[in-house]
Design a protein that fits this description.
The strands form 4 sheets. The protein has a two-stranded antiparallel sheet with strand order 1-2. A hairpin with a 2-residue loop joins strand 1 and strand 2. It is 48% helix and 9% strand. With 266 residues, it is mainly α. The protein has 10 helices and 8 strands.
């Protein structure tokens, strides 16, 4: 991936397998041969009903049809959703955000907020709804508008608000998100949590350069720059990389390639 970057031919997670190859008949023939050999040795067979093929937009439609007919795989126009997150670029970001909002709303609506104590509602917000967003926040920068909607849902639940009825908040949400030693209740700020999780991905590129994710990102986007704060992002780069560069440049300064981080005061 990228000139001189790491070559990724396959990815495995649990019982899922992702194979990556060039859109050519000889490559597809090789893939089918490998799958057949695997089946003969293991006694397992590929479920063609659950197997899909996704092509780059640069692949000719005729070639796509030939490969699909040869392999008996179904063609997909997008990568769909995996582990609850949409993998497609562009529209996938909006789908991820809406899916997250829907799941949070469904979870909050299922709890009897008026029968729970304030402490119980705070605990559910902290331990359940915040954790629902962690997976998506590790690779997607949630839009500011979505952050506000999520906070509004949590705030309404904490203070026991019902639809169509107004209820005054005892204290501001910002105060609740402060540490307990500073007079708050220690609730996590979702926006800061999102930046921290993405920042960890950037830091792993320095601290764990042999990590597969670090190798892929470095090979494709770092463009021969030595330090993260020297790296740039262009419009054609992925949303993940552009957000990593933005967060790194705004929040941190790198002292040495393997050294510590020093916060920049904004």
């Amino acid at each position: 991936m990228g000139k001189g970057g790491v070559e990724v031919s396959h990815l495995l997670f649990a019982d899922d397998l992702l194979l990556i190859c060039e859109a050519e008949m000889d490559q597809m023939s090789l893939v089918m041969g490998i799958l057949e050999s695997f089946g003969n040795m293991s006694g397992q067979k590929v479920n063609f009903q659950k197997t899909n093929v996704y092509f780059s937009k640069n692949v000719d439609r005729i070639v796509q049809n030939e490969i699909c007919m040869f392999a008996s795989f179904k063609r997909k126009d997008d990568l769909g959703r995996y582990l609850g997150a949409y993998m497609a670029k562009g529209k996938g970001k909006g789908k991820n955000s809406q899916s997250l909002l829907d799941k949070m709303q469904s979870k909050l609506s299922g709890w009897k907020k008026l029968t729970l104590s304030l402490a119980g509602r705070l605990n559910l917000v902290q331990s359940v709804t915040n954790q629902m967003a962690v997976y998506s926040m590790q690779h997607v920068a949630i839009p500011v508008g979505v952050h506000k909607q999520m906070v509004e849902m949590q705030r309404d639940f904490v203070w026991g608000r019902e639809e169509g009825k107004r209820k005054i908040s005892a204290v501001s949400w910002e105060l609740l998100c402060r540490e307990k030693k500073n007079g708050g209740l220690g609730l996590r700020n979702l926006e800061f949590m999102n930046e921290a999780l993405l920042g960890r991905v950037a830091w792993n590129m320095i601290a764990k350069p042999n990590n597969l994710c670090s190798k892929v990102l470095s090979g494709k986007y770092r463009r021969d720059c030595n330090l993260m704060n020297e790296c740039k992002a262009v419009k054609t780069d992925s949303d993940l990389w552009r957000n990593l560069v933005r967060i790194w440049c705004c929040r941190f300064a790198l002292c040495t390639e393997s050294g510590s981080l020093q916060c920049i005061e904004e």
